[in-house]
Write a structure and sequence with these properties.
With about 190 residues, the protein is mainly alpha-helical. Helix 1 crosses helix 2.
Length: about 190
Amino acid sequence: MDASERQEDRSHFDAWVRGEPAGFTWLYDKYKNRVFAFLLRMTSERELAEDLLQETFLAALRNANQFDRNRSFLSWLFGIAHKRAIDHFRHAKVEHEHQSDAEKSVGTRIEAPDDATSNERMRGLVSDALETLDPLQREVFLLRELGDVPFKEIAHMMNCPINTALGRMRLALRNIRKELEKRGVHGVH
């Protein structure tokens, strides 16, 4: 990339940051295919790559003050795209681990009142109930039940007051009980 092309990118970037749609359109049209191809190779999922492409451009705008004007816009954009993809994979891995842990461990903490109900069925029902929870409730529940993390630490990790963490746990437990009752499992405490 020559100096004049870098200058042209910077000029359009500055226009974009000032709120001029033409600056964004020009940069997006110029680089969307290259960044999308990169993301598609990283993820192997077209829809996910499209979502990450949008997130990349939004992150570029939000972090405009971090753009090093001595670098090329494209290399900076690729750095953001890479970070978005890695963040996605980390999040997906954590979600998978939580789900796997929930399937393995949560069911052992809840005794089925009906002896005919197998532990495997109960774990499946609890796992399904967990999926219906608000993400913040699910996070507190999993941290507490699977990780045995004290509420004080949960509150610190989630950047909320301890009473908020406790409240989320109460809601999670109540909502899990409701979901289990809908599925015919009663008497879970």
